[in-house]
């Protein structure tokens, strides 16, 4: 394992994932019988923090959970993964978040409904209380599952401290484009890039056009994750397509974006350049999609290094 440098600080939510496998999505008013149910720790920030810790990065998680059964599951998940919870707040008055995930039996594609629960009660003062840890970090990573004013405040704090910021603008929400000037790195998938730019992203040429819009609106680097086509990286001085890694049959794509972002942040913390870090993130995602679940699918460091070695 490489010598560790500065830690990563991730802000996001915990949501207990309830994943239902089914042959079809129900219409409103319709009930369908699923083939299986699985539960696991989730929430994009949680998945990213757990994945980064599994990859060997010292990882802090900033969020809020309830003092309920789901909150106890969250604490156990962070403890097992080695995620630092110095800035994990507890709210006795709000329920911990949860997510309903519907998975297609045949393709592994997914549809998700998430309720952030107690994480939405995080305050700017609680974010500010982590400023010393943020200042010591190699990068600050967050998403759009928390209220945008909290995300904007945290990104602005990290930037004021000179810490590189990584925004995974997921899920796609109205107003997220206003965060771009605070982003050293923005990492949308095709759907999120289209929501941010108004442009389709179905080819590499379209990915480059969308990246240009993201850069023009203030992001320093645009890194579009393109599923089976890998990732596209662009900045004022960089432009490169990074192919996806084939680590086996695709089982579940739910955690792919989280795996990429965790791998990318962990690689930055080790001093890798942007292209190499994005390639590392693609390798992490390539393994994650071969397994069911979100945080349980996140690979260990030795697995990623073995995959990279096979594709050297």
Q: Could you give the order of the helices and strands? A: EEEHEHEEEHHEHEEHHEEEHHH
CATH topology: UDP-N-acetylmuramoyl-L-alanine:D-glutamate ligase
- Principal-axis shape: globular
Low-pLDDT parts are: none
In round numbers, the mean pLDDT is 95
Query: Helical amount among residues, as a percent range?
Result: 25-40%
Can you tell me the CATH class? Alpha Beta
Major beta sheet, strand line-up: 5-4-1-8-9-10-11-12-13
Radius of gyration: 18 Å
Please give the count of helices.
10
Subcellular location: Cytoplasm
EC number: 2.7.1.15
Function: Catalyzes the phosphorylation of ribose at O-5 in a reaction requiring ATP and magnesium. The resulting D-ribose-5-phosphate can then be used either for sythesis of nucleotides, histidine, and tryptophan, or as a component of the pentose phosphate pathway.
Pfam families: PfkB
Write up this protein:
The protein is of the alpha/beta class. The protein has one domain: UDP-N-acetylmuramoyl-L-alanine:D-glutamate ligase (3-Layer(aba) Sandwich). 34% of the residues lie in helices and 25% in strands. It has 10 helices and 13 strands. A 9-stranded mixed sheet has the order 5-4-1-8-9-10-11-12-13, with helices on both faces. The chain has a 4-stranded mixed sheet with strand order 3-2-6-7. The longest helix has 15 residues, at 274-288. The protein is globular, with a radius of gyration of 18 Å. The model has no long low-confidence stretch (mean pLDDT 95). Its EC number is 2.7.1.15. K(+) binds at residues 252, 254, 288, 291, 293, 297.
